[in-house]
Specification:
alpha/beta, Phytocyanin_dom, transmembrane helix, Phytocyanin domain-containing protein, Cupredoxin, 22% strand, Phytocyanin-like, three-stranded mixed sheet, six-stranded mixed sheet, 9 strands
């Protein structure tokens, strides 16, 4: 009976190992979704991050009117105090894409006086575990740089062509499916070798 329990334990360990080794496709997140990076309508970026899981290899995109905003990456103390004197990095294009390269907290604020204090700051917590960079989906036409005035994070807002452009491509889904099949076949082969 002890041998049978050992086999079951080994089978479960193999299944967990292969399940954990299945990579997830790298994702692109637009900070604030349809509202973007702004102080208009008092967006709640903490609530926005709450429903997201960020992984190493994912990208975050800050979309904003560069005449009125910017993005500064800062340390935690500067994030908390809304201090823009010691920025780790500064972004000013109005469409800044940042690849998340390390796990842990990444802090971003708007460096325009008063904006961070008004809530234009975001703490991106990157989970351990890598996302796989895959070929991007076809791009949708870009929207204007004018700030959105629609309410953010509303369930009544349908997905936009911009958000659909970040959906996993057919190639990404195929790669994940193939990885899953290989894991299952390998686990079955291991079961046959054990003599279940």
């Amino acid at each position: 009976m002890a041998v049978s329990s050992a086999r079951v334990g080994l089978l479960l360990a193999l299944a967990v190992f292969f399940w954990q080794s299945i990579p997830s496709a790298a994702k692109v997140f637009t900070v604030g979704d349809s509202i973007g990076w702004t102080v208009l309508n008092s967006p709640n970026y903490t609530a926005w991050t709450f429903s997201k899981t960020f992984r190493v290899g994912d990208s975050i995109v800050f979309e904003y009117n560069k005449q009125f905003h910017n993005v500064l990456e800062v340390k935690k103390a500067d994030y908390t105090a809304c201090n823009n004197d010691s920025a780790l990095a500064t972004y000013t294009t109005g469409n800044d894409s940042i690849i998340l390269k390390t796990a842990g907290h990444h802090y971003y604020i708007c460096g325009v006086p008063g904006h961070c204090l008004a809530g234009q700051k975001v703490d991106i917590l990157v989970a351990k575990g890598k996302a796989v960079a895959l070929a991007p989906s076809p791009s949708a036409p870009s929207s204007s740089a004018a700030p959105s005035i629609s309410p953010p994070f509303s369930s009544s807002n349908p997905p936009t062509s911009s958000s659909l452009a970040h959906a996993p491509s057919v190639g990404a889904r195929l790669m994940l499916s193939v990885t899953l099949v290989v894991g299952v076949v390998t686990t079955c082969f291991a079961v046959l070798l054990i003599g279940f």
